[in-house]
């Protein structure tokens, strides 16, 4: 294939893969409603009540009842209030949603380790070869939906296809609690009938440009030449030319489970005063614990790192039977390590605190507020 002076191999579609895109329905709002079922038939908005913020504040999300009033993510909370004064406003609990997100990923791991999270509430899964040896990706998708509902009392929507681009659009197709399969045979028709704003990369800013060019649908996009698209949109135009032909071979990039989380500080003025060193260690311990907690992880090992002015570096650790439950506990263990191994006759240029040995199964460690009736 030729473009200007460039000659390149035209990307070919890969129909061999089975990709799921799983996206939770009204995620933050659904978690709040799950924990407080009295909210189920009310419009629920995840935002601080505008009265509490003097009108500032933005809507994170809202349930589908609230959406019927025209409320949506990223809208000013004050505007949401105008649209529906009787809506229930709830401040988000980000750390908690993060824990729920970890629980969802644990369920994904029953099927595959090839998981690429895009945010707390959505992920791509490559289930071509899955742990349950199920041939049909549609069946895997349905099993995941059922398992998330049974274990977590939350619903999600799933897109099933042979590439990430189509799977992501498909998951949005029948929300909430929908599942949409787009086979290689269905893909051309599916892609051509899409409205142009469904194509990844076409945002609020570029949408009018597409419209000015008479491109409103996938079909309009399909009718453009590669030259035209690259001329108008550069790299994105190139990518769109192939996407609308069902060609998008980006792999699902699995995130490795983090083995440790730590922080270290280098001090311009070397530390010699023990009180100051302990203050620094307390601060590092606190920050690291917060980070670990926010990820819903439970650590068993605490490591202290000390680098002296001559660059001698010492690391010492304690492994505990019980996981660390608070920042205070981390601080106490670090203090212990410092008092046992620290050398006050030398100036300190760097201190570090790391938590590791994370528990594999986060699932049982996080109690669910509601038991799901089977
Ligand atoms: P989305 O998946 O975009 O929205 P949703 O899950 O609430 O609803 P849908 O059923 O349409 O998928 O985002 C996931 C979460 O991310 C959402 O619950 C809240 C958060 N979020 C924000 O905080 N701000 C935003 O602008 C958006 C779009 C999402
Ligand atoms: Mg969602």
Automatic annotation (TrEMBL):
GO terms for biological process: DNA repair; DNA-templated DNA replication; error-prone translesion synthesis; SOS response. PROSITE patterns: UMUC. Gene3D superfamilies: 3.30.70.270, 3.40.1170.60, 5' to 3' exonuclease, C-terminal subdomain, DNA polymerase, Y-family, little finger domain. Its EC number is 2.7.7.7. The record marks 28 as: Substrate discrimination. It is found in: Cytoplasm. Keywords: Cytoplasm, DNA damage, DNA repair, DNA replication, DNA-binding, DNA-directed DNA polymerase, Magnesium, Metal-binding, Mutator protein, Nucleotidyltransferase, Transferase. GO terms for molecular function: damaged DNA binding; DNA-directed DNA polymerase activity; magnesium ion binding. Its cofactor is Mg(2+). Its main location: cytoplasm. The active site is at 122. Binds 2 magnesium ions per subunit. The keyword Nucleotidyltransferase applies. Mg(2+) binds at residues 23, 121. It catalyses: DNA(n) + a 2'-deoxyribonucleoside 5'-triphosphate = DNA(n+1) + diphosphate. One of its GO terms (cellular component) is cytosol. SUPFAM superfamilies: DNA/RNA polymerases, Lesion bypass DNA polymerase (Y-family), little finger domain. Poorly processive, error-prone DNA polymerase involved in untargeted mutagenesis. Copies undamaged DNA at stalled replication forks, which arise in vivo from mismatched or misaligned primer ends. These misaligned primers can be extended by PolIV. Exhibits no 3'-5' exonuclease (proofreading) activity. May be involved in translesional synthesis, in conjunction with the beta clamp from PolIII. PANTHER family: DNA POLYMERASE KAPPA, DNA REPAIR POLYMERASE UMUC / TRANSFERASE FAMILY MEMBER. Belongs to the DNA polymerase type-Y family. Monomer. This is DNA polymerase IV. The gene is dinB.
